[in-house]
Amino acid sequence: MRANSPAACTIVANLATTRAGFGDLARTVELHAEARRLAERFGHASQLRYLGVEDAWDSYLQGRWDDAVALADAWIAEVEAGNPHYMESTCRVLRGRVLLARGDLAGALADADAALRLVAEAEDLVGLHETLGLRICVLLADDQVAAAEASAGELLDLIRDQEQAGMTADWSADITDALTRLGRGPELAALLAGLEPTPWLAGARAIAEGDPERAAAVYAGIGSLPDEALARLRAAARLTSAGHPAAAAAHLDRALAFYRSVGARALTREAEAVLAASA
């Protein structure tokens, strides 16, 4: 970007968002770094604050969860100190996902509920996808099935009624997996089939259609390590149940390696249970 203008950092950041939506995470990270360099050059404080959330998400997706949480904690502390920002809900969803994977259900639910309040106040229909998705995941992990089912119905109604549903990149494996475990997989797959195709939606559809092996390959191509790991965990469970322990092990080894590397204790325990079942 050669333009000698403060607008350059916003242009590059917007391009990064576009590339993220199309599942090109490697290029997204490069563009975020370039946007940050430009924002620092021109002293663009608001853009630097926005990029702080994007940096946290990049760290989360690339498996640097301690960095992601540190960034999220510092960013939310700034909000709580009296400096509000419209991306607070997104930042809380990120932190909530890590807390959930690490077994802190109370903390994850607190972030999910706070994020839901924020998007409701802002009438942010797009933001409802990720916030409702996190809440469903937490409630299901806490065996609050009826409450999870209610939120699942709300999310599916939102997709059905909202033409821009396909514009949100974050159709992640965990949201889709939770809906599928609630028996809403076929319904979700049918809704996603009518949206503009992206790699994210292809991965989600694969899970919803009961093909986690295909989903794992899609998420690996995107570079989303948490989504790939969850798809591999589900693939390992399916293959174990089908009597294919060797094929299951190939997926399980990779899922476990990731979960242990990021301190995802709850998911590590779940993966270890699949490993014991396949022995």
Question: What is the gist of this entry?
Answer:
This protein is mainly alpha-helical and 279 residues long. It has helices at residues 7-21, 25-42, 45-61, 65-80, 88-101, 105-122, 125-141, 145-161, 173-181, 185-193, 199-208, 212-222, 225-241, 245-262, 265-278.
Note the main attributes of this structure:
globular; 0% strand; mainly alpha; 279 residues; 15 helices; single chain
Structure description:
The protein is mostly helical. It is 79% helix and 0% strand. Helix 3 (45-61) runs antiparallel to helix 4 (65-80) and helix 5 (88-101) runs parallel beside helix 7. The longest helix has 18 residues, at 25-42. The chain is globular. The protein starts with 6 loop residues before the first helix and ends with a helix.
What is the secondary structure topology, with strand pairs?
Blueprint: H1 7-21, H2 25-42, H3 45-61, H4 65-80, H5 88-101, H6 105-122, H7 125-141, H8 145-161, H9 173-181, H10 185-193, H11 199-208, H12 212-222, H13 225-241, H14 245-262, H15 265-278
